[in-house]
Structures are given as structure tokens and as C-alpha cells.
Design goal:
This protein is α+β, with helices and mostly antiparallel strands. It is built from one helix and three strands. It has a three-stranded antiparallel sheet, covered by helices on one side. Strand 2 (77-84) and strand 3 form a beta hairpin.
């Protein structure tokens, strides 16, 4: 990479612009990566909450996960609450035999 030189031979402004651009780019990409990673974790939490609650409803074995899921059952529905870090995902599935259509 060659820096363009001003007529007086200095490359200071170009170097400062390159450093500022690099810092801004680094922080922007890092922030976007952190947001995408958190959203990926949250979508995984919602997925496991639904699949575990659905498995409980259909008496299938639940998927293997390290997410803590608590269930509340009554005669009309099953509610699954997943605790994933700072997020809480709740899923309510009605028992179809008790549903009112």
C-alpha cells in the first residue's frame, strides 16, 4: 500500500484518515457482530422453548439442551418458560382435546 504524498512530501492527513476509518470500521463490525450473536442466542432460546413444550405436550422425549425450561400444566394448556441468560421466552400450547373452537 502506498500513501499519496502531498506536494510538500507529508503523508499525515492520509494516515490520520486511514486510522479513523479503520477504528470506525472495527467498532461498526464488532457492534453488528455482537447484535447478531445475541439475536442468534435469543432465537435458539425460543426454538428450544417451543420444542421442549411441544415434546411435553405430545409425550415425546425433549430435545437435548442446556436451557433451563420450567413447565406449568393445567387442564387446558401447557406453558413452558425458558430462562436463557437475560431473556425469558414463554410458550403456551393448548391441549387440543380441551380447546374451544
Amino acid at each position: 500500500m502506498t500513501l499519496s504524498k502531498n506536494p510538500d512530501g507529508s503523508t499525515g492527513q492520509t494516515l490520520i484518515e486511514f486510522i479513523c476509518f479503520s477504528i470506525i470500521s472495527f467498532w461498526t463490525i464488532g457492534f453488528a457482530g455482537a447484535v447478531l450473536f445475541q439475536q442468534w442466542q435469543r432465537s435458539q432460546c425460543a426454538y428450544f422453548a417451543f420444542e421442549s413444550t411441544h415434546a411435553r405436550l405430545t409425550t415425546r422425549p425433549p430435545p437435548k439442551t442446556q436451557v433451563q425450561i420450567h413447565f406449568q400444566e393445567d387442564s387446558n394448556q401447557i406453558r413452558g418458560t425458558a430462562l436463557c441468560g437475560k431473556w425469558i421466552e414463554e410458550v403456551e400450547l393448548p391441549r387440543l382435546e380441551a380447546a374451544l373452537w
